[in-house]
Amino acid sequence: MVRKVLIGLVTLVALISLLGINANAQNGRFEIIPAYSFMSNQFGDGRLGNHGYALDINYNFNDNIGLTASFSGNHGGGVPYSYSNDYSYAYHQTQDFVTGVFGPSFYHHAGNFRMFLHGLAGFSHGRYSVREFDPTCTSGCTDFSNRMERGTGFGLVGGGGLDYHNNGHWGWRIFQADYVFGNINADGLYTCDECTPVHTHNAWAINNVRVVTGLIFRFGGTR
Questions:
Q1: What pLDDT does residue 20 have?
Q2: Where do the domains of the chain lie?
Q3: Is the Cβ–Cβ distance between 148 and 112 less than 8 Å?
Q4: Do residues 17 and 9 lie in contact, with contact meaning Cβ atoms separated by under 8 Å?
Q5: CA–CA separation, 172 vs 33, rounded Å?
């Protein structure tokens, strides 16, 4: 999970470097917002909290309306709930959830602060895996069972937040709160130590919530 988050952050830095056009005005027509994201992720066998990253690219027509392309990835693992009190039995899940969405953003300015709302549509991709095992086993161990599903489908993001601008070329996305919906048809595989592998197909309606905070880089001339 840590490696995936680091890869995401490195990718954001690289994109900022490639798009780093000289900022020549106080208010930028373009904005790039690399950010940290935390999501309550439903895609899997129980809801978990996932850390991750987000990247928003804004093109602002004026002080009140813009277009946003938003990309995010959240990854995590843990135990969403316990099956039993038998300490020779353990359960662990990993989750991945990625979105790429596009749509309008609406702004209201109050001094150096900017409130915003957005409604974005595009794709969502989810993957989860579950393993059940004996935590007391030290050698020659096999899992009791393994289960994995993944798929891609429609994605929808709606929410808003609050930004701070210093009247220069940078700012701070203080917070952003979003509802993240995914309609995913997922293919999977279930295996266990005493059964024949089973291929699965399930339709998911995902209802996730995420919060975001990050930096704002502004460039590209006046609006």
A1: 44
A2: 2-219
A3: no
A4: no
A5: 9
